[in-house]
Amino acid sequence: MAGRRFSLLRLFRRKKEEESPGAAPAQQPEEVQQVQPPQEDAGQERTEEQLRARGRFHRAAQLVCRFIRCIWHEEATFMATGDTANSDLFNAQTSAALLDMLVENGVYKAKQVPAIVRCIHQWLTSNVSDEHRLDKTLVLLTEEHPMDVAVTLLRSAPACDRAARTMWKTLISSRWTKEPVLQILFRVLEYWPAHRRRTSDGDERDVFALAATVALWEILQLSHSWCPGGVKDNFPRLLLTLLFQVFISTEEMSEEVETFWRQCREQRSLPPNPNRFAVQTVKALLRQLLGEDVLMAIGRKCGWDMLLKADSHHYAVGLLARELCRVSCSFGRSIAVSLLPRLSRGEPLWELPALAFLVEVLHCLNPRQCGPSVLQIISRHLRSQCPARRRLALRGLVVLSRDPAMAKSMRSLSESLLELLQDADTDAVQMTLSAFINVLHFQIVKISTPTALKLLEALRPLFDNEHSQLQQLSMLLFWELMEATERSKSLKPHVYLSLVPFYFNWHNENQRVAEASWRALFGAARFLKWRDLEDLVTMEQPWRFPECLLEKDRSRVGQYVRQALPFLESPEKPLRKLAIKFLGIAARSMKQEQPELQLICQALQDMTDDSPAVSNLAQETLHIIRAVRRTSFFPFW
């Protein structure tokens, strides 16, 4: 070490002699010789010159030793305390030259690297006009010790002052340091709220993720005309990390994070809340890679405001995903691939927004490659107690079910989907029906009889649901089920009990519901091998249906009557009139002691407050039924 110190002193002396403006040129010895005083005074002048040289060397040596002692003995606390005793070290070009020689000649220990970084930062803070003087030194130091340099800079200047911005720009602009420094920065970003990292000097203080966020934002601002390759390559990782920061800093703010952010705001102008700054960084990142149009599109839909609210954050994330896919499917695909491991691990904090993002980009993925892992994630969320997660899982399932390759894999989800058909959430039921329809449509999987029975029981209440979309989808699913199920005697009673709702909805004012009813009725006729009913439906002769049904299946007339009675209260006038006619025809197939006959009479009698056309038809039908009941020839009426 002593050899290195004397070597450094020699280097410093030589450098000072080369840079000294008073040094005489080598080609002027003759001129100097001409003006020399008499020979007897030469010895005295040489002595004075030697004394002056020794004085200069002594002062330089003291400065060098003082500077090195400051580094080696880590006496850099004056930089934080404002001690001016050493201020001359950081206000002179000599200190820059010393730092250059220290780093270029390797005259330092690894544990002094953090102190050297702090010295460079302090020098740049004190010397505004020459901010690129130490660029080469900083790059050389970072090439050898990237972790120590980046972490120390984040600790020393978390608010990223002017000097720190200069240092980050230098490191990102160098092809030798750009990649390792960015990777360290990204790693710190991913650990919330702080990342414990030990530097070579033994410092184990936490490095806050928000410090890395501020540094990243500055890097993106410095590179407004270009985007570092490392940022482009790590775009999915960065975007997901920043979105998580927005969420977690909105959801919960620990005291240590609040204290850190308050200290940063005291040093420079920053938003009052960290989540707003994280959103600014997300905008800067998207602006670099996708342009201003994406930001404006999200802003028009209030996406940025929703991102800052805990209850609407996942909606905003889904909106962001849609806009990304609209611009570039490759971006959406790369982010989804990065997202799958996180969702597979089941990280609870950001699981809902992550699921919202995944569902929006599913159409960009290859189901054969990512389908199994996505299906595993979705199946877990189908059983979630959170309605929002169940809805998102079902949305994803609908997308997957459109691919024939996934249809067979979804067979294991039948039980979960059957339970969801009874959910109170209309949207959840609607998506469940759509997923079932898509899977059965490919006819890859045959539905077992037990599963078909459960499905028929779950569908029957939906045929008369007040939501037309549920009516339509439930009847379309029935038709698909009839095509995908093997004929079984145990299924026939359930199919018979579906005929009356289909008949009435065949006359529904909603054309889509009417068409779905027609298809379901046709599928039921084929399943029952009932040729007359099949012809009736094919030829579109609905008026023949009541007689055909009641004649074919007299044993279930009472059940059919109970199914038809609710249609007397339908909001659609044609359906009320159709129900009156159906009940009138059913009455002639019934015995007088049947309780359903009394129900018919009572229901028709209560329709006096309806419109004249409906009430008159009800009274006429009731009069005929009563007249026939008084005769002994009731069966011939």
Quick tags:
disordered C terminus, 36 helices, disordered N terminus, 637 residues, mainly alpha
- Give the terminus-to-terminus CA distance: 123 Å
Rg: 42 Å
Q: How many β strands by DSSP?
A: 2
Please state the average pLDDT score: 85
- Please give the share of residues in helix: 55-70%
Widest β-sheet, arrangement of strands? 1-2
The SS-based structural class is mainly alpha
Number of helices: 36
Could you say which overall geometry the principal axes of the C-alpha atoms support? rod-shaped
Stretches with pLDDT under 50, minimum 5 residues: 1-9, 18-38, 74-85, 632-637
Kindly estimate the percentage of residues that lie in beta strands according to DSSP.
under 5%
Biggest sheet details: 2 strands, antiparallel
Give a structural overview.
- The protein is mainly α.
- Among the domains are: 89-223, no CATH class; 226-365, no CATH class; 554-632, no CATH class.
- Helix content is 69%, strand content 1%.
- The protein contains 36 helices and two strands.
- A two-stranded antiparallel sheet has the order 1-2.
- Helix 21 (367-382) runs antiparallel to helix 22 (387-401) and helix 30 (511-528) runs antiparallel to helix 31.
- The chain is rod-shaped and about 155 Å long.
